[in-house]
Amino acid sequence: MNRSELERKLNRVLPTVQKPGRYTGGEFNQVLKDWDATRLHAVLAFPDIYDLGMSNLGITILLDILNRQDDMLAERVFAPWSDMETAMRANDIPLYALESKRPLAEFDLLGFSLPYETIYTNALNMLDLARIPLRSVDRGNADPVVVAGGHATFNPEPMAPFFDAFVIGEGEDAILEVAEAVRDWKGSSRPREELLIELAGIPGIYVPALYAAAYNTDGTLATLQPTTPQVPERILKRIVGTLPPPPQQLLVPFVDVTHNRVPIEIMRGCTRGCRFCHAGMINRPVRERPVEEILTSIERLLDQTGYEEVGLLSLSSSDYSHILELVKGVNERFAGRHVNISLPSLRIESFSVELMDLLKQNSNRGGFTLAPEAATERMRAIINKPVSTEQLLETAREIYSRGWHTIKLYFMIGHPDETLEDVQAIADLCKAVLREGQEQIGKRASVLAGVGTFIPKPHTPFQWVPADMPEMITAKQDLLRRELRGKGLKFNWTSPDETMLEALLSRGDRRLSEVIFRAWERGAKFDAWREHFSAENWLAACEEVGLDPEFYVHRERGEEERLPWDHIDIGVRKKFLLEDYRMSKAGEIRPDCRSHCYACGILPKFNQLRRENPGPAWSCPDVPQKRATP
Amino acid sequence: MTGDPNAPVKFRYEITFAKEGALRFCGQLDLQRTFERAIRRAKLPLAYSQGFHPHPKLNLGAALPLGIISRCEVADVWLEQPVPPADILQALQAASPEGLRILAAQPADTHTPALQTRIASAEYQIHWHPEDKPLDLEGRVETLLAQAEIIRQRRKKTYNLRPLIEEMEVHPGSESEPQLFLRVCLQPGKTGRPDEVLRAMGLDPYQPDIIRTAFHLKPDPAEETD
Question: Is the pTM of this model over 0.90?
């Protein structure tokens, strides 16, 4: 099908689907390069709808990097919503890239972003819609090289057979090396296996087909070994020494996407060490972006996009060393431009309120979000997020008195060793916060409690812990539902079934891939969307394959056990995680590592990179310069 | 637009634009935002309403059903400072996405009602791809126009489409010529939709390109018409 034929079909189909602007491309600042003038054709895929994918910073960054190469082009593709999928299948429209409208199968490199696990089935569905063989082993020289990256790929095993390679860690440098290898291989008539071995030689690249797993009789993993001596036993994640400047080009979607804003990463990583936090462990070390670079980029990108909002992004904004200077700078430079500044992930302290107050003229006073995560001192010590109730109430008082009406409080239930008393304390704390609000501003005050369920994630100190039992989660949610009633209180929760699926997918091994495949065959897709999620598909798929989800989700893993993700090296030592897990059991806090280095393992692993980027570029201590040998 | 004598003076412009390409699938709210961002990128001094939640003073004309192309849309834009219309045209065009084509900019009287409230009817041209051209288009039009009533349903309400059709004519078919010309009433509560007209003729409304080409305005008693 040529382009005009496809466009004619689309013109007929698009008026019949919801938000057709998701499928047209052509947004302002779109980069459409000449196909014949470029040697490598890449397409970056986000396996959820456009609205979410266009808000994903990773895709934005990598698209920008690839398109800045003279001999490369990169386009975008997202998962069509079910109405569009039906129309595409009915009208024989293959999945196409938004920019050129070329079918995905014509590209050389197809890169998926996998930030969370519940989009795995969408990735399979997109390959199917693109008519590309789902499994790496079935793909030939004419098929695109299919790679994946993103937070979920720090345990790549459940998706191992579907990808030719995984980019473990930060993609800014690695994507170019992968793209160059694919470019040089393409048209060379060298067998695909040779390319895979070459890719596996790039630091941070994991080629699952070159590794084999063996299991013990109790079902645990025995070994996961390279099948060829040419590849490393462990894959050390890739990081950049200094954050590269923010994207040169930002697209401006027509449709109202999740985040309509200029996203600027002010800092990467977090020193807090909350034990449940996957992002906090895998994104070490902390690297900050200079204030001036942030301000200049905001100015340039606002001019270029016309956006009315800027998001200053990090895992913990208050910890950015120059946060006050940054906020003041933003105020000075962008006053009167009708721009909102959002500063998420603030710590629970009155300084955060002062910061937000400084941004007053540039921010809307909707809600102020805080994430205490737990409500008792005991639980806070277990998860290593020590914030006293007193401090929280004081901060709440400050927030209400400065003009905010709503406080959003994020908690998690299902933490290790949690009791119903700890959950009751969540309800009590929400009510105490509301009382502060009522004293300050009366009946207008409200509290919105968002209560997620903890999932023990790979590469965290809680990786050995079983997930909470569904009947316990339900009992805890029932308690909160009973308690968090009445004027000014609102309670949001996540479905226990969806939590179980996320736990299964994030803690699985390579055998789980067959479950994912069968679940997809049964129609599983958009598992993160309540209207699509079906627990039955997954249970049936587990049964068919003969895997017990309990084994993955609710089994405590032995300290000596080989975990399915142990071959992925995040830089933080397993011993360190284990030590932290034991501290958790003993109720011991490990303070912020900015003030004291606990030797998590990052520095020895990346000492050369640290040497090349000394001083305040990282939050880690400096490492001594090597003496030059005469 | 309150009667406040201390309100700062604003400058009003009428901007005509085409909505085509990818933008034909952009809904009215999205178009509003797209247009606003183009104005911001063009660094035109867009005026904002007063109050707690200032809104840009920008109004777009009659909403276009998704998928329909237009070459005659109108935006009513208020600026804080006067800008020569030629500069507006140039700056805005440079800052617009493909599919938003700025055709004209002219100063407008600050007291007259917005142009879009004076619209009486709209003209459309409907083109089919040579492979899709419907059989006996003339016969279908004749049959349709011969009906005294065309009862249609939209959003669970029935209405009579026939009086909303003001003019309809088949032009000799060639690829570059319009194949069907249509003029329908376009007033609040009396909106004739070209896709509905095609459906009433038993045709797939999504097959052809439908292009809105002109508005007809109600006569303005306070103003001499050209």
Answer: yes
